[in-house]
Write a structure and sequence with these properties.
Blueprint lengths: L4 E6 L5 H15 L3 E6 L6 H5 L2 H9 L8 H6 L2 E7 L7 H7 L3 H5 L7 E8 L6 H15 L2 E2 L8 H4 L8 E3 L11 H22 L2
Parallel strand pairs: 1-2, 1-3, 3-4, 4-5, 4-6
């Protein structure tokens, strides 16, 4: 039985979604998946990044994290996205990356990918759920199989109870408010498990 290949694709300016991605990576590897953690290309000008100390520090700390490519999407059996909300929608950095996937989509190479998503915002009603749902709209166009956590584990309630995907609130000090680590790890394990079912079924 071949291992599931999981791409964790994130965008993070000050580190929140990078942390979510790393928690997901840890759980997915424990579940037996082969995992890549990759970041989408940054579009913000250097001046904007350097004007924010936290953003500048995080950019420097993650400079060696590989940048996401279309090859990563083609390689993956499953994909977990993690992004901050931008006015209730996905960041332009991820949108730009998704907009380059037309060629793979046209060839049918994104169909049946197992996908799930996580999000963050600066307050409890800052658009986290809407951001995840906006992202899933693109996934439906791909013909992907969306794996939401629903309420399949008690950890989801401790993390705020978002059934669409783990989402967090970040305080003014950049700290995650919710107890979200267990929920992220459950979501990652669930994504890998469903991807394994799909992969096994397609090999019959």
């Amino acid at each position: 039985m071949a291992n599931v290949k999981l791409a964790i694709i994130y965008y993070s300016s000050t580190g929140t979604n990078y942390q979510l991605a790393r928690w997901a990576e840890e759980a997915a590897k424990e579940a037996g998946a082969e995992v890549k953690v990759v970041k989408v290309p940054e579009l913000a000008p250097k001046e904007a990044i350097e004007s924010n100390p936290a953003w500048k520090a995080h950019a420097e700390a993650t400079k060696d994290v590989p940048t996401a490519t279309l090859a990563d999407l083609e390689w993956a059996d499953a994909i977990i996205f993690s992004v901050p909300t931008r006015f209730g929608n996905i960041p332009s950095q991820l949108k730009q990356f998704l907009d380059t996937t037309g060629g793979l989509w046209a060839q049918g190479k994104l169909a049946n990918k197992v996908v799930s998503a996580m999000a963050s915002a600066g307050n409890a009603h800052g658009g986290q759920e809407q951001t995840i749902l906006q992202l899933y709209t693109t996934m439906y166009h791909w013909g992907a199989i969306v794996v939401a956590p629903g309420y399949t584990d008690p950890s989801i309630f401790a993390a705020g109870g978002n059934p669409y995907g783990t989402s967090v609130t970040v305080d003014q000090n950049g700290k995650i408010v919710e107890n979200a680590e267990a929920a992220v790890k459950h979501q990652a394990r669930r994504t890998v498990q469903v991807a394994q079912w799909v992969k096994n079924g397609m090999q019959q």
